């Protein structure tokens, strides 16, 4: 599967074939069909039984999740056949990993499944969101039809938090082919194609933002911060939690490896990076928000936490260039001038979206972090909730949260300030 871009005339692009090799569907980076609700082979029933009862097992602590996992056999991955089965296995093992770290019964198959899917062995956005939902209909953007498959807490707040992202991904699926056609049209100066795509992108981003703001409807900030968020973080920068070397992935018989991995976050969504790429928005922020010349930005580093085909798709898109290149040129005619205005409007929409995201973070993380601790369970992720100062608060993806989000927002706004 080559990551190299192949330029085609926009009229020749067939989305169903052009995008299939990158695992991009009509639902954007979600699968074409809803994920499996369970693995079909009865051999994997021990895994399914644990995740079916995961909230109650976690609540029981030593006599629950630990005992259940310790009694598991080390199951082989040889009986996984289709990609949906590999994805289901990844979701199962990721959730169990963040509930109980990390005996060979989990780490051995998890390492193999992760390698197959080209993902790290941790609860990524793909495990928590992209492959962890069911839908009563065929419209994955309809929140009323969505439900989660696996949950840590079994709460409505957790389900709503995860499903908002599913709906956002699906809402944006239809914009991907037009934006690819628009990039192709940059070289031929087909302004009508570009303007139409940019207008569609602005509408799409606005619609995704409306879904994001629905987070407030059924996700309680206190439940999210104290009960859900601790399970989402990884083992990177977790010295304060007693994990100076990260987590040991025990493979039994004295074998294993220490790993420091980022936890799941919406920063791992390929969709938002797709928006950035087609608009030509450049980010210099690193994981700790300090730009360092010659080093990749956090936005580039985090691609290693995306499914392999999605990462290759973003590389493919980057090599196609961006609309900003044409937008920054002096207006050659009225059509070019209209295109520049459409570009500014799309960039402004993405800036507003990022501002909304900061508002969500303020309500669900910053404000709760300033309140007294409510006796939440200590686990792998607790350190990400332990720093009280806004300037130091760490995101589950490993960034200094608020400065990172604000800088990303400001870089987006800056991209809309055209040179000509």
TrEMBL record:
Pfam families: IDO (PF01231)
Cited Gene3D superfamilies: 1.20.58.480
Record-listed heme b binding positions: 357
Gene Ontology biological process terms from the UniProt entry: 'de novo' NAD+ biosynthetic process from L-tryptophan; L-tryptophan catabolic process to kynurenine
Keyword RNA-binding applies: no
GO cellular component terms, A-Z: cytoplasm
Keywords (A to Z) from UniProt: Heme, Iron, Metal-binding
Annotated segments matching region Disordered: 378-420
Coiled coil: none
Chain intervals with Basic and acidic residues compositional bias: 407-420
MF-aspect GO terms: heme binding; indoleamine 2,3-dioxygenase activity; metal ion binding
The keyword Iron is assigned to this record: yes
Family: Belongs to the indoleamine 2,3-dioxygenase family.
Record-given protein name: Indoleamine 2,3-dioxygenase
Species assigned in the record: Cylindrodendrum hubeiense
């Amino acid at each position: 599967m080559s990551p190299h871009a192949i330029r085609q005339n926009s009229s020749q692009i067939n989305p169903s074939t052009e995008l299939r090799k990158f695992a991009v569907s009509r639902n954007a980076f979600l699968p074409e069909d809803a994920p499996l609700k369970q693995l079909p082979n009865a051999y994997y029933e021990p895994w399914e039984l644990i995740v079916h009862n995961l909230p109650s097992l976690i609540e029981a602590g030593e006599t629950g999740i630990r005992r259940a996992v310790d009694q598991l056999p080390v199951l082989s991955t040889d009986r996984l056949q289709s990609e949906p089965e590999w994805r289901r296995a990844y979701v199962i093992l990721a959730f169990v990993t963040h509930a109980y770290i990390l005996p060979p019964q989990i780490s051995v198959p998890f390492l193999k499944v992760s390698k197959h899917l080209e993902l790290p062995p941790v609860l990524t956005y793909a495990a928590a969101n992209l492959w962890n939902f069911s839908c009563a209909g065929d419209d994955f953007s309809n929140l009323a039809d969505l439900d989660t498959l696996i949950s840590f807490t079994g709460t409505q707040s957790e389900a709503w938090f995860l499903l908002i992202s599913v709906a956002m991904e699906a809402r944006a699926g239809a914009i991907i082919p037009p934006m690819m056609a628009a990039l192709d049209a940059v070289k031929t100066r087909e302004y009508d194609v570009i303007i139409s795509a940019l207008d569609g992108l602005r509408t799409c981003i606005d619609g995704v933002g409306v879904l994001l703001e629905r987070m407030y409807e059924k996700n309680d900030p206190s439940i999210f911060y104290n009960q859900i968020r601790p399970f989402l973080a990884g083992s990177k920068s977790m010295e304060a939690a007693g994990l100076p070397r990260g987590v040991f992935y025990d493979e039994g018989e004295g074998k294993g490896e220490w790993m420091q991995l980022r936890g799941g976050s919406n920063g791992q969504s390929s969709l938002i990076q797709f928006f950035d790429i087609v608009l030509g928005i450049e980010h210099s922020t690193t994981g700790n928000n300090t730009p360092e010349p010659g080093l990749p930005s956090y936005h580039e580093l985090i691609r290693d936490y995306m499914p392999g085909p999605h990462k290759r798709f973003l590389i493919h898109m980057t090599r196609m260039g961006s609309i900003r290149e044409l937008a920054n040129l002096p207006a050659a005619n009225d059509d070019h001038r209209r295109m520049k205005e459409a570009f500014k409007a799309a960039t402004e929409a993405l800036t507003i979206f990022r501002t909304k995201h900061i508002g969500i973070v303020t309500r669900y993380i910053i404000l709760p972090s300033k309140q007294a601790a409510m006796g939440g369970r200590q686990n792998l992720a607790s350190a990400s909730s332990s720093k009280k100062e806004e300037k130091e608060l760490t995101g589950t993806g490993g960034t200094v949260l608020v400065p990172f989000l604000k800088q990303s927002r400001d870089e987006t706004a800056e991209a809309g300030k055209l040179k000509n």
